[in-house]
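Fold these two proteins, one after the other.
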Amino acid sequence: MSLSRSWDLVEELQVATLAGWVELDEMHSALAKEEVHLQEGSQQQESVVRATKVVYDRNVAEVERERSALDMGCAEAVAAREEAMTALRELEGQQEALTILKMQAEEHKLELARREVAATELVEAATQHEGILRSSEARERSKQLWAPASPPVSGQTLSALGSGQR
């Protein structure tokens, strides 16, 4: 190979190297621009992520507050339900007691009615007996008024009559 050819090759290599350097420079410049663009995008994404995290944290805090409120409301509702069930059981017990008392009152009314009937019968019997007694007394008085006078009888005479002695 000749010297001129070698110089030509060296020049071609220099041109190619320069072209490669220019191309590499352009690529490096493009990559630098892309890196700047990516960094800007990354910063924007980080800003969006931070803002999203703030919103998310706020939403989580709100959900936790609501959950706490719901838990408290649930606990209060459970306590109120238990109180209501206790009151219901007490009311049912009172209702049973009232039913028993009503039955006892009805039994007492029936017993009172039976006793009133018995008392009425006793009053009627006493009234009849009193009437009979008065009639008997009236007859005795009437007999004494119309009967001949006789000597009074003593207790000894009556006992002698009863034993058959005179």
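Now the second one:
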Amino acid sequence: DYSRARLTRWIKEGHVQVDGRHLRPRDAVHGGEEVVLEAEQEVETTWRAQDIPLDIVFEDEAVLVINKPAGLVVHPGAGNMDGTLSNALLHYDPALEQVPRAGVVHRLDKDTSGLLVVARTLMARKSLVEQLQARDFEREYLALAVGLMTAGGTVEAPIGRHPTHRLRQAVVPGGREAITHYRVEERFRAHTLLRVKLETGRTHQIRVHMAYLKYPLVGDPVYGGRLRIPAGATPGLDAALRVFKRQALHAERLGFEHPISGESVSWQVPLPVDMAALVDACREDSESV
């Protein structure tokens, strides 16, 4: 729940004991040790509040459900120190300063649109994190893939950092367990609209797994390869593919157990305008044959 830098600092300052001993950050652990952390809780962030519009789908005293637009980074980081969703959340609800990571418990990539949940209290955050770890969250995405897929399936392939491209993820031996379920929602002449369900939540998981299957997402700047215009494409599809500059991925549905009521709750949001136009262009291209 805390950054690697903060945990490293706590270890160096002697706030962490492993089986009663103080260790250095580089010391190995082998599993089964008792780890004790004694440190004062700090305000998680010095991120500044910024008045950035939010598309709030639902809110109560425990959670906010946000429909994130493509192009909005979730957390400040190198190259994006402000103008992020977290800056917007701190402006909307200053009390989120007291919740780690401004209440965000799961992420969407900058150029992925759709639903994510924000915990407004520490209790709500604990509940949501536990549900994520138990794989009780429902997360469904719509994705437009390059190529014709004949059937759905499940990808079980471990994901870790790419061995040579350090900013990329890849399917690698010894990576973290990653499970993606997918089914065909609609087939077009040269593309497939997929409904994808995450069982785990690794960085870039859907994008990596679809590229691993040789059906990368349309527009993906990292895993998609070169722009591919199908032979005989209508002018509308040709134009739509050329102007679509992000991965065609949208977090359409989100569900979980409400932290206070215990009831199962879920939300669904339609495709944003840019991706809807792309799907329409694929459909019109298919109907023109």
